[in-house]
Amino acid sequence: MLRILRMTTSPAPKRVKTSPPLIGTHNGHFHADEALAIYLLRLLPSYNPSTLLRTRDPSLLANCHTVVDVGGEYDAAQNRYDHHQRTFDTTFPNKSTKLSSAGLVYLHFGKAIIAQRTGLHPESEDVEILWRKLYNEFIEAIDANDNGISVYPPSETANLSKRFNDSGITLSSLVGDLNNDFSISATPESTDHETTDTSSASNPDPQAAEDTRFLAASNLMGTSFLRKLNGYHTSWLPARSTVLAAYEKRHENDPKGRILLFREPTPWKDHLYTFESSSSPSTSKVLYVLYPESGTPGAKWRIQAVPVSKDSFESRKPLPEAWRGLRDEELSAKSGVDGCVFVHASGFIGGNGSEEGAREMARKAVEM
After folding, report:
1. 328-344 per-position pLDDT tens digit
2. Is the pTM value of this prediction over 0.85?
3. Closest Cα partner for 322 from 356, 350, 294?
């Protein structure tokens, strides 16, 4: 539970130990980093419940137990987590991206949060793996965005132009939208979106309205973080050992190890690239991954071409062009493999009615 403390004109009291702790951050325009940082702190028992004060008044911030993204000071021993100082250059281990307030809080409290939410031992290897994974896949982008760091070096994109604009669908952009002084709601009784004015003209306390929007931003960032953590803990992490076992047995499917097989649907991409990167440079790359569509008996099987990289739409070796866009008997006749179901028009994925059929499609495809 987080309670907002409203500012008053009364003199600031002397700094005393507060219970619940008082967290300070700046008021005014808010960003994704402090919105997430506040949520992360609240996940810890020592900060739940806690009270939030949004102000830039140094005398009020001085009385806070913890200050985030304001105050011009980074001192973990004093619970100060600002990153705007000219001399600030702290990064996550083995990373070059300068931290934002989200990264700072995660650096110091991330392992404790992960251990608490998952039930894992704080010193376990799994917590370390999840801590680094969440930074790589979630926190670092927030740090970079807040510090004005581009995904690619500007020199490499000078002559590139986007096919479409995707900036409006990022979490940071959605948080930015919440700074606007209005709300949109839709009710089951009406299919029309209704806009409610919360400007100072209709709201006697504009700061209260701004604080409410900040809490909405904090919840957006925090629940997104928790979904990532839950997915990595319950699905991605257990899959690591499954993918390793399949990777070590890949030569049973193809003499050169180019076909990987799973007995159940498995999130394999991240782990495959990790294991390949630690293998000898002369080791053949996996070209196709085979797996059942579901865990139910008699499920159809898929054959998926491995992308050139995790986020790429380009395959290392798409399924044969002659098969693409065909289905059922026509595909079986063209491929010479019984039980074919389909091959996508781009060749990135196909299907067969049985494991052996999918194996045979893969064996033929690697040689074509």
Report:
1. 999 999 999 999 999 99
2. no
3. 350
